[in-house]
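hey can u check if this looks right to u? its 285 residues, i copy pasted from the old doc so theres a chance i mangled smth
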Amino acid sequence: MSRAPGHQARKRFGQNFLQDPGVIERIVRSISPRPEDVMVEIGPGLGALTEEILAVNPRLQVVELDRDLIPVLRTKFFNYPDFRIHEGDALSFDFHQLVTDRPLRIVGNLPYNISTPLIFHLLNQADIIQDMHFMLQKEVVQRMAAVPGDNNYGRLGIMTQYFCRVQPLFEVGPGAFRPSPKVDSAIVRLVPHRTLPHPARDLATLQLVVRTAFNARRKTLRKALGGLITVPELNALDIDDGLRPENLTLAQYVSIADAIVERGPLDQQSSPQASDRKSSEGDHD
């Protein structure tokens, strides 16, 4: 698919338009849209994927930030009266407003520069989502699917797996886009758990624990989490305080968060390790 006349891909929106028919067909097969689904596409761009989904589900809704693309989409799909365009930023969009009697099925070729915060935004609304299929930077998909001990394992993977089953589907080379990105891409399927396998007593506390740990991912747990939980408390949970954050499972992070909630706030003044976090080495999430 060629670009719309006069429209240049915008770097600030992270636009790389999908244009390989074979890749598009494979994505649609993976999504397997049905006429009765409540389908939502994030960042339709020039409508390459949109066109194929509309052929099956004429009530598709899209969220597009680039206002110059909206008339392009309206003109191209004028013969679909139920096709709806929501002009806005998906990062702040309330997807609850699109829910009817069915949960949402969300798809999109996500801009690489906002993919991680957008995933977190959607995870916070996972209760209204049936599944999600996204084109992402290959590295992001690897991080989402990573397991303990993997160099890619971190905050993104833990929190994604807390809410969803993560299934990497296939990789896509730069040549499938115009302009071509400098990185490889991959398609991932995210299916929210109907029942959370490891529910935390307080989600905010779990998020704090995971974020704090991976802000100092190269330190031991006793130092990385020193301001949140003590060494005796970690040992009481049968967790070795000498491990690094990347060695713990989701279930272990939940147990730490639950212990903090049950105990209440730790006195920061009694924890000299708390200051160690100020020199954190950072997480690539």
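Residues 203-279 form a domain with the Helicase, Ruva Protein; domain 3 fold (CATH 1.10.8.100).
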